[in-house]
Amino acid sequence: xxxxxxxxxxxxxxxxxxxxxxxxxxxxxxxxxxxxxxxxxxxxxxxxxxxxxxxxxxxxxxxxxxxxxxxxxxxxxxxxxxxxxxxxxxxxxxxxxxxxxxxxxxxxxxxxxxxxxxxxxxxxxxxxxxxxxxxxxxxxxxxxxxxxxxxxxxxxxxxxxxxxxxxxxxxxxxxxxxxxxxxxxxxxxxxxxxxxxxxxxxxxxxxxxxxxxxxxxxxx
Length: 220
Fold this sequence. Notes:
This protein is mainly alpha-helical.
C-alpha cells in the first residue's frame, strides 16, 4: 500500500469493491486499480451527412450546406424563408433559383452573399438592388430616375459613370463608391462626382475656369 501511495500522483485511480488477498487470505473490501495517465488527445473529423455539398457551384448548394450545417430539415428552412418544401428542394438541386422576392430572405439565412465580387459600380448597383428584392421599377422610384436609366447604369462601364449617376448610386448603396484616392488629381475628380458637379460647376464654385479643373483631374 505504501508503494501505491508513492506512485498515486502518476496514476489514474478507480475505486470499487472486490476480494483483497492479504497474507494468503482473501478478504472482501474496497480496492484501488491504478492505471497510467494518458495525455494523448484523440480527434477525428466529424462525418458530413449524406448529400453534403463538397463544391459550391450555385446558390442552391450554398443553401443546402447552410441547412445541413444548422442540422435543419428542408421543411424547417422553408418556414424560415417563407416558401414551401418543394421550393427548397428545387433550389438545392439546381432546378430553379430563388426569385427576386426571395433573395433578401435567402441572403439573411446564409449570412453572406454567395455571388462573385462586383468589379464595377454598375454591378454593385445591380447586386444591391437584387439583395433588397427590388425590381427596376421599384429601385427607380427610390433613386428618383426612370427604370431604363437604372438598367443603363447597371451595365455602364466605370469610365462612363458621371456626375449624375455617381451621387445617386452612392446614396442608394449608402456608401462611397470609390477606393481611397492615390493622388490629389483623383481626389478632385472623386469629390466632384460625388457632389454631382460638372467640371464647369466646380470651376464656378472655386472661382476658376473649367480648363483649370480639367487639368487638375487624372489624365489631363
